[in-house]
Design goal:
- The protein is of the alpha/beta class.
- 33% of the residues lie in helices and 23% in strands.
- The chain folds into two domains: 3-241, Rossmann fold (3-Layer(aba) Sandwich); 245-308, Arc Repressor Mutant, subunit A (Orthogonal Bundle).
- α1 (30-43) crosses α2 and α8 crosses α10 (280-292).
- The longest helix is centred in the C-terminal third of the chain and has 19 residues, at 243-261.
- The protein is elongated.
- The model is unreliable at 315-322 (pLDDT under 50).
């Protein structure tokens, strides 16, 4: 998918019409975050005041098989107060504890019920995957049958977002990437277009580490933290860049700042290493990230010569010998 053809639901995390998996261990704010996202989508406000949600409000259906409607309503009101909105008149509907199973017949009954009600959601959020799944989630054939059965819900560009569980780490998994810790068959993660993994940040109880582990539409976004802030009848989530992300951003800023100070906005890699006191390996990573974001340009014939873009237009490169 090229950049011009993408229609983002949450830029740059989730495209409209995606199948999405949000997974994490128990107690990692998954249900809270799902409702927090539902509110932002139904108002069109940026998620965490950072990620654009398409600008216009979306019709959102939340299917929760674990909480009562009263519990859902209480959480929605607390989150809405934290955002500073009134949740009463939003295009947001709930199905709570109705034993809905996403078989072919179950999906058809849901579509019929939505049609009868006159509510055609743009986004369907499900808490949890396991509650609407039938069969063995460790069996590829059962998982593939599930993805096939939910196709009617995906039609017309609907986005489907499932909350799912994460395998508890063991000694063999301590260094495993989070994408490999989604519970069940690997066909679960293979069957989605985008995925977010949630874990504790350095063991803290109130900060969640969110990693964008899959994005079929493009590059995965850098990992970030969100802080869970609870105060009486108000709940908020606050975006926080991770230390590694903040350090990476600072390094990129220093590279661009140095290039801006040079004649013709260009510099040799050796000059960057000397001036910025970075290792060659670290600088290579920074240059690659800046190149991927089209912030800089590497001339094809010259070695290690980078040109800072001005108004997204690269200067005509000239060959610089090493």
């Amino acid at each position: 998918m090229n950049a011009q053809s993408r229609k983002w639901l949450i830029e740059p995390l989730i495209c409209a019409g995606d199948r999405v998996l949000v997974f994490g261990e128990s107690g990692h704010f998954k249900s809270w975050l799902l409702l927090h996202l539902a509110l932002h989508l139904s108002t069109g406000q940026p998620w965490f005041d950072k990620f654009e949600c398409g600008g216009a409000p979306k019709k959102v259906l939340v299917i929760d098989a674990e909480m009562s409607r009263q519990q859902l309503r209480s959480r929605i009101m607390r989150l809405a107060k934290g955002i500073g909105i009134n949740s009463d008149d939003l295009p947001l509907e709930f199905i709570s504890r109705e034993n809905l199973i996403f078989t072919e017949d179950g999906v058809q009954r849901l579509c019929t019920a939505l049609n009868d009600r006159g509510f055609d959601p743009d986004v369907v959020l499900v808490d949890t995957f396991r509650r609407v799944f039938t069969g063995n989630e460790n069996e590829a054939k059962d998982v593939n049958a599930f993805w096939r059965d939910i196709e009617p819900l995906n039609r017309a560009g609907r986005t489907l977002i499932f909350v799912h569980h994460m395998k508890k780490p063991n000694k063999k998994m301590q260094s495993a990437e989070l994408i490999h810790r989604a519970s069940g068959s690997t066909d679960i993660i293979a069957g989605v277009d985008s995925s977010l993994a949630i874990s504790r940040s350095n063991g803290t109880r109130d900060i969640g580490f969110i990693q964008h582990v899959k994005c079929r539409a493009g590059e995965e976004y850098e990992a970030f933290n969100v802080k869970f802030v609870e105060d009486n009848d108000t709940v908020r989530f606050v975006y926080e860049a991770t230390r590694s992300v903040a350090a990476s951003q600072e390094r990129k800023h220093k590279v661009l700042q140095f290039l801006d100070s040079q004649p013709d906005k260009r510099a040799h890699k050796k000059a960057l290493i000397t001036h910025l006191q970075m290792s060659s390996e670290t600088l290579d990573k920074v240059l690659q990230e800046l190149g991927n974001s089209q912030s800089i340009f590497q001339q094809k014939k010259g070695k290690y010569t980078w040109v800072h873009l001005i108004n997204n237009q690269p200067l005509t490169p000239t060959k610089v010998e090493v």
